[in-house]
Amino acid sequence: MSKKVWVWAIVVVVAALAIWQLPNWFGGSWKGIVLTGNSPSPTPSPSPVSGKKASPAPGLTYDQALATYAGNRIQFNEKCQAIPGQMALKNGTKIMLDNRSKYDQTVSLEGMKVALPGYSWQVVTIATKSQLPYSFKIDCQSQGGVTKNSAVINLQALIGQ
User: Fold this and answer.
1) Residue 82, beta-bridge partner list
2) Reading across the β-sheet that carries 134-142, which strands appear in turn?
3) Is the full-model pTM beyond 0.85?
4) Are 84 and 98 in contact (CB under 8 A)?
5) Could you say which of 113, 139, 146, 155 is the most buried, measured as most Cβ atoms within 10 Å of its Cβ?
6) What is the mean pLDDT of residues 74-79?
7) How far apart are CA 65 and CA 52, in angstroms?
8) Minimal CA–CA distance to 130: which of 29, 34, 32, 35?
9) Cα 95 vs. chain centroid, distance in angstroms?
10) How far is the C-alpha of 144 from the C-alpha of 159, rounded, in Å?
């Protein structure tokens, strides 16, 4: 191969790597998902037995969070299976990500990671600047491995958008 071909091959590889890393350079929002939580780091929520631990949402106990986010909650079991597996929401809706296993889990929403220690939960706001309707997948990782597409959230378009 000539020197010119090698130079072009290197340029193509560097460009491909740069495009692949763009989401990380811009806070993981390449696909337009904005993910914000109520607290910088989740603290353990009560296990079903103890009921005495602090909540990650200021002023909310686990039972209050269950009531507040009853229709907007995704629960992850020990195998990282999500319940419900699919959910339709309006843009900008707050949801509760609830780890009901003793194992630490990392939930990935369009590449943005949310750490959920064992028996913890986190409230996040799901919004996009992309054209609606918008659908994205949630992956979950625990000691048992990675479960791709544990859940799907479909953001609905509002009338008049």
Assistant:
1) 76
2) 86-90, 145-156, 134-142, 105-109, 112-116
3) no
4) no
5) 155
6) 93
7) 14
8) 32
9) 10
10) 42
Confidence at residue 140, expressed as pLDDT on a 0 to 100 scale: 93
**pLDDT at residue 62 tops 70:** yes
Most distant CA pair in the chain, distance: 69
* Closest among 109, 81, 106, 98 to 44, alpha carbons compared: 98
Q: Buried b vs exposed e over 99-129: b needs ≥16 C-beta within 10 Å?
A: bbbebebebbbbbbebebbbbbbbbbebbbe
Mean pLDDT for 138-147 is: 85
DSSP 148: E
- Cis check: omega of the bond before 48, within 30 degrees of 0: no
Whether the per-residue pLDDT at 161 is higher than 70: the answer is no
What is d(CA 155, CA 119) in angstroms, rounded to the nearest whole number?
A: 27
Q: Write down the pLDDT at residue 10.
A: 79
